[in-house]
Specification:
15-stranded mixed β-sheet; 15 helices; single chain; binds adenosine-5'-triphosphate; 4-carb_acid_sugar_kinase_N_sf; Rossmann fold; binds the ligand O=C(O)[C@@H](O)C(=O)CO
Length: 425
């Protein structure tokens, strides 16, 4: 297998978002969980997205895991590696975007790394280096209340400069509008000044196509699904990849019981849970009981087992920003996040043992904990449920025959859970 594109994603929902985008743009793509074991039987593909759970871990670990993934991808012929980060640039001042970018840049000898989280299809645009979420700057969006990495600065040149050892420049929209040659020239100018990475504005998909053409001539880029779209279109338009048809998934239906788990506390997920309550039973976990050692897992399982035979169920730990802040004040942010993620993983494991074959998980960290516990080594991409959220078919002997959907916290329409169930057969 010779890869046209190698990707490293810093969380599992982000990886499935990117795998979805690449697939829709004509690249045969597989999503792996971590660096694949040698005996994992991967299909012939143009792109591999290696999913890591490295967004919120200690920076040194994020670097070493990303480096191992890069080595594997380059070893399979990937001349370009995209480090997939969140379209809302989720990170702290300590990282992990900057440290991982610096390490991958040093490994491949890239002069200036192109960086953009723009993903216009989901309302993420970048102008003068400032990230907008819909109509508002990042720091005014619901991301200001994120449970793990609240975002308080919309200026990405500043944000990345706080995390990276190199200086950060800007390629603005006016330069981009003049085309690929103008971008190349600007990057050469920045490189001449010793600047090692540049935030690139992008507002429309056509901007991402220009960025993709430039990026495809580099060794490394950093961004969200939008730059993935640009790279995929560039690979197809320059004839490096023959576009594959993205027909719907005609493989056998999986059937079996359906469960949804929500650990995301985003505004979008809270609304989706409220809407799901009208069409399926919803159990709200008590996070304080989880943190104080009460057996919430057993309570959830007893509750679910009484209902699963009648139809889908949803189990949620999700809470409002005020409740999340209060819980974190009582127990600490990391301890609260970790304990709830592990409870979700316990519940998922038992539900699958009890016969659940179709599982929908909301939240990147939550999805990471669940997929790790289920020991699923990779996914093939099926139909799109919502922008950035595909149906995933598990690969690998043990859990083959399961369908999952891993929803990024902020993605999906108001009826996301019913939409997903309707498409997961
Ligand atoms: N009631 C709660 N109080 C405090 N923390 C919670 C609560 N419920 C869930 N959490 C934690 O909040 C974090 C949510 O992160 P997660 O990545 O799963 O969702 P998200 O950030 O909305 O999604 P994404 O990363 O895809 O945007 C997890 O660590 C989860 O365990
Ligand atoms: O880019 C995004 O917003 C998502 O794919 C994601 O990474 C959220 O966790």
């Amino acid at each position: 297998m010779t890869l046209a594109l190698g990707c490293i994603a810093d969380d599992y929902t982000g990886a499935s978002d990117l795998a979805n985008t690449l697939t829709r743009a004509g690249l045969r793509t597989v999503q792996t969980i971590g660096v694949p074991a040698d005996d994992l039987n991967l299909p012939e593909v143009d792109a591999v997205v290696v999913s890591l759970k490295s967004r919120s871990i200690e920076a040194g670990l994020a670097v070493s895991r990303s480096r191992a993934a890069e080595k594997w991808l380059r070893g399979r012929g990937a001349s370009h590696v995209l480090f997939k980060i969140c379209s809302t640039f989720d990170s702290t001042d300590a990282g992990n975007i900057g440290p991982v970018m610096d390490a991958l840049r040093a490994d491949c000898g890239e002069a200036v790394v192109l960086v953009t989280p723009a993903f216009p299809e989901t309302g993420r645009t970048v102008y003068q280096g400032n990230l907008f979420v819909g109509a508002v700057p990042l720091n005014e969006s619901p991301l200001k209340d994120h449970p793990l990495n609240p975002m308080h600065d919309s200026n990405l040149v500043r944000v990345l400069a706080r995390q990276s050892k190199t200086q950060i420049g800007l390629v603005d929209l006016a330069t981009l509008a003049r085309g690929a040659e103008a971008v190349h020239a600007r990057l050469a100018e920045l490189s001449g000044k010793g600047i090692g990475a540049a935030i690139i504005d992008a507002v429309f998909d056509r901007d991402l196509e220009t960025i993709g053409l430039v990026a495809a001539e580099h060794r490394l880029s950093v961004g969200a699904s939008g730059i993935g779209l640009g790279l995929a279109r560039a690979l197809v338009s320059t004839g490096k990849v023959k576009s594959a048809t993205t027909s719907s998934d005609h493989r056998a239906a999986v059937g079996g019981q359906v469960a949804c788990l929500a650990g995301s506390c985003s505004q979008a997920t809270l609304q989706q849970i409220a809407n799901a309550e009208r069409v399926m039973p919803v159990l709200r976990l008590d996070p304080d009981r989880i943190l104080t050692g009460a057996n919430e897992t057993q309570r959830a399982l007893d509750w679910a087992k009484e209902r699963l035979a009648q139809g889908p169920v949803l189990i949620a730990s999700s809470a409002t920003p005020a409740d999340v802040a209060a819980l974190q004040a009582r127990h600490g942010r990391d301890a609260a996040g970790h304990a709830i993620e592990q409870t979700m993983a316990d519940i998922a494991e038992s539900l699958v043992k009890a016969g659940v074959r179709r599982l929908i998980v909301a939240g990147g960290e939550t999805s990471g904990a669940v997929v790790d516990r289920l020991k699923i080594p990779g996914f093939l991409v099926g139909v799109e449920i919502a922008a950035g959220v595909p149906v995933l078919r598990a690969v690998g002997a043990e859990k083959a025959g399961m369908l999952l959907a891993l929803k990024s916290g902020n993605f999906g329409g108001a009826q996301f859970f019913s939409d997903a169930i309707g498409l997961m057969r």
